[in-house]
C-alpha cells in the first residue's frame, strides 16, 4: 500500500497517550476516527474494512459475551481465520480482560496435537 494511502496518525493528545490498545480504539471511536482495519487478501479485489466505531461496538459485544460467561482473566482460544471477525474477536477478549490465544481453526473440524499443545502451553505459570 502506498504511503500516501496510510491513515495519518491521530493528533488528539488523549489518543496518543492511551495506555492500552483498548484505550486507543475507544478513544478513536469516540473521536469518530476513520478506518481502523482493512483486510487485504492476495488475489481479491474486495477489501472489507471496519471503522473505529464499528470495531469498538463489535468488540464490546464480544467482550460483554465473554465477561457474561465469567471469562475475564481466563484464556480464550480464538480459532478464526485471518479477517475482520478475527480482529473483532481478539479485541473482544481484551475488552473482557481475557487472554486471547490465537490459533488457526482445526482443519476438517478435527483438533490436532498442536491445538492441545498450545492450550496446555498457554496455561498460567
From TrEMBL:
Annotated family: Belongs to the ATP-dependent AMP-binding enzyme family.
UniProt entry tagged with the keyword Cell cycle: no
Ranges of residues in domain AMP-dependent synthetase/ligase: 37-123
Record-level GO BP terms: fatty acid biosynthetic process
InterPro entries: AMP-dep_synth/lig_dom, ANL_N_sf
Coiled-coil annotated spans: none
Top-level taxon of the source organism: Bacteria
Keywords associated with the record: Ligase
Protein name per its UniProtKB record: Fatty acyl-AMP ligase
GO molecular function, one term: ligase activity
Cellular compartments per GO CC: plasma membrane
Amino acid at each position: 500500500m502506498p504511503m500516501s494511502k496510510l491513515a495519518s496518525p491521530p493528533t488528539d493528545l488523549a489518543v496518543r497517550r492511551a495506555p492500552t490498545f483498548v484505550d486507543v480504539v475507544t478513544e478513536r471511536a469516540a473521536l469518530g476516527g476513520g478506518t481502523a482495519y482493512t483486510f487485504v487478501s492476495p488475489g481479491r479485489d474486495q477489501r472489507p474494512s471496519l471503522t473505529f466505531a464499528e470495531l469498538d461496538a463489535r468488540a464490546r459485544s464480544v467482550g460483554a459475551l465473554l465477561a457474561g460467561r465469567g471469562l475475564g482473566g481466563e484464556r480464550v482460544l480464538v480459532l478464526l481465520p485471518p479477517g475482520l471477525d478475527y480482529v473483532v474477536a481478539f479485541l473482544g477478549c481484551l475488552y473482557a480482560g481475557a487472554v486471547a490465544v490465537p490459533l488457526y481453526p482445526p482443519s476438517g473440524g478435527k483438533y490436532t496435537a498442536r491445538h492441545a499443545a498450545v492450550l496446555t502451553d498457554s496455561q498460567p505459570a
